[in-house]
Amino acid sequence: MVLNQRKMMHLFFYAVAIWFIWFAQTNLDEYTVRILNNIAIFMILAVSYNLINGVTGQLSLEPNGFVAVGAYVAAIILLDSDALIYQYYIEDPSPFVLAIHSQSFIVALIAGGIVSALVALMLSFPVFRVRGDYLAIVTLGFGFIIRILAINNPQITNGSLGLNDIPEYSNLYWTGGIALLAVTIILNIIYSKYGRAMKAVRDDEDTAIAMGVNTFKVKTLAFCTSAFMEGVGGGLLACLLTSISPDLFTFFFTFQLLIIIVLGGLGSTTGAIIGTVIVIGGAEWMRFLDEPITLFGWTSPALPGMRMVVFSIILILVMLFAREGIMGKKELFEKFGSKKRKEDA
Fold first, then answer.
1. Handedness of CA 87, 92, 96, 98 (dihedral sign)
2. 3-state class of 288 per DSSP?
3. Residue 140 CB coordination number (10 Å)
4. CA gap 224, 230 in Å, rounded
5. Helices (H), the chain
6. How do residues 296-310 score in pLDDT, each as one tens digit?
7. Is 46 inside a domain boundary?
8. Which domain holds residue 126?
9. CA 182 to chain centre
10. Hey, is 300 helix, strand or coil?
11. Domain total for the chain?
12. Is residue 146, in this structure, part of any structural domain at all?
């Protein structure tokens, strides 16, 4: 009976999500759709980042690097040779870059995800030799390395000038649909035997080793899965912005994702979704605070940046009164389920 109720709840959630994606894309104004596209892309990035950082408990600070890899791979594949030759001012594009063109958006996204996952696989061997703060420092360095490589290899990335005129394929059908798919995949991993092993590594890695868990394999699986989805998210972001450069993928990008998953609750996928809506959507919807405000006949002067001050205060208050984030380590349906069981008891 409980399983049937859970399945019905999941089906209802999917139906509402699909209806909302269709309604928003066909009925809402361009500005609102743009915000929703941003929310959907950051939702993909947040739930995937939460898999390695929250569920597996590895303090990794690399998302900006994997998102950059996915964005550049997708952009280079989608831009034809004429567009690349026209844009590359510093050096002529590499013959390999000119040869990998494809007009298929899905091929570009999958290629971005696969390249990011392969980079993660190679990185996992040195990275997971350390733990804790040392792991954070190593992965932080990776993000800087990717950005420096993008600047200093103009024959591949066009250097600091970046890539422009990327086809604008991203819309809510793509971003919302892939976000829905990403959430489904992550939740299925979390509730599988691999997810239980990831939680064991997070709670006590030494005990997990003693119980026979191959912690390197578990951490590598989480790392590569997270990197794949971050690469796909990077491709979606590139095809939404239609222009990318190394300055887009600074540590602030990682810091923003870290705020999202900590606010929502480390280890909670639905918490990452809620955190994305609050951080990405809230920052946009509070733009009116930067403009002159009339209150009781008095008009305040425009205060650029005031929305970020107010938004920061709200974040501080939330973290003060919800130390483990909004959802903690639980999912939304688990909280409802536990309340229902208490009522039945």
1. positive
2. helix
3. 18
4. 10
5. 2-27, 30-50, 63-78, 81-87, 95-99, 105-127, 132-152, 154-157, 172-190, 193-203, 205-210, 215-241, 251-264, 269-276, 282-285, 306-321, 332-344
6. 667 777 677 777 787
7. yes
8. 2-250
9. 10
10. coil
11. 1
12. yes
279 lies in some domain: no
Q: What are phi and psi of 295, to 5 degrees?
A: -140, 120
Residue 113, amino acid: G
pLDDT in tens, 236-294: 999 999 999 999 998 889 988 998 998 888 888 999 999 999 889 888 887 777 777 77
Residue 61's contacts (CB-CB under 8 Å, 6 or more residues apart) are: 136, 139, 140, 143, 251, 254, 258
CA-closest candidate to residue 228, choices 43, 20, 70:
70
DSSP string covering 36-70, please? HHHHHHHHHHHHHHHIIIIIS------HHHHHHHH
Label residue 98 exposed, middle or buried (CB < 10 Å: 0-12, 13-18, 19+).
middle
Domain-located, residue 324:
no
| C-alpha to C-alpha distance for 66 and 200, rounded to whole angstroms | 26
